Amino acid sequence: MKLWVDADACPGPVRDILLRASQRLRIPIVFVANKSLSLPRSELVSSVRVGAGLDAADNYIAQQARSGDLAVTQDIPLAALLVPKGVVVLDPRGELFTEDNISERLSVRNFMQELRESGVMTGGPSGFSSQDRQQFAAALDRELARLHKPRP
Questions:
Q1: Contact partners, residue 22, CB within 8 Å, separation at least 6
Q2: What does R_g of the chain's alpha carbons equal in angstroms?
Q3: Which residues contact 110 (CB under 8 A, 6 or more apart)?
Q4: What is the pTM (predicted TM-score) of this model?
Q5: Number of Cα atoms under 13 Å in the Cβ half of residue 77
Q6: Which of 53, 75, 105, 150 has its CA 20 to 30 A from that of 114?
Q7: CA angle at residue 136 from 91 to 25, to 5 degrees?
Q8: What span, in angstroms and rounded, lies between the C-alpha atoms of 119 and 98?
Q9: Which class does domain 3-147 fall in?
C-alpha cells in the first residue's frame, strides 16, 4: 500500500497529517508535483517532480497508483480515473470519492467549468479551516484503518 498526494495544491495542514500517518503506520508516501517540495527526510517519504504540463501530476498518479492505495487530491477528473482502479480517494477536506458519487461529482465539476468558461462568476472554495483539517484527519484515519493491515 502507498499513499499518493497530488501535491501541487495540497494544503500544508493536510500534508502534515499525511506525513504523521505515514510515519505512524509505516506506509510509503509519494508526493507528486510540478515544483520542488520541501519534505522531511525519511525512508518512507518520496517525491516525484513532473513536467509543467496541465495534468502531468494527475497523469503520473493515475498511471502509478494501484488498487488498495490511497490518494489525496482535489482534482475530480483524477479521482474519476482512480476510483474504478480500486484506489481510495479523499479530497483535502475529507470527502471520499466512491463509485456511487464520482459520476455526479464529475458532472457538477464539468458544469461549473462550462459556466466559468462562458463568463459566469461562480466563486471559489472557502478557505481551509480547522474544521476542514479535523474532517480530513478523521476520514484519513477511518480509511487507513480499513485498508491498512500492519506487517508482523
A1: 3, 28, 29, 42, 44, 45
A2: 15
A3: none
A4: 0.85
A5: 10
A6: 53
A7: 105
A8: 31
A9: alpha beta
Q: Residue 105 contacts by C-beta under 8 Å, 6 or more apart in sequence? A: 76, 79, 80, 97
Q: Check if the beta carbon of residue 61 is closer than 8 Å to that of residue 32.
A: yes
For the segment 40-82, what is each residue's pLDDT rounded down to a tens digit?
999 999 999 999 877 899 999 999 999 999 999 988 899 999 9
77-116 pLDDT, tens digit each:
999 999 999 999 999 999 999 988 887 777 776 666 776 6
Which run of H or of E encompasses 81?
Answer: helix 76-82
Residue 62, all three cell numbers = 493515475
| Number of residues in the chain | 152
pLDDT for position 150: 57
Residue that has been written with the C-alpha cell 480515473 in this structure: 81
- What the block records as the C-alpha cell of 37 is 517540495
| Domain locations along the chain | 3-147
Q: Which helix (H) or strand (E) holds 136?
A: helix 130-147
Strand partners, 88: 70
Give the span between the Cα atoms of 121 and 147, in whole angstroms. 40
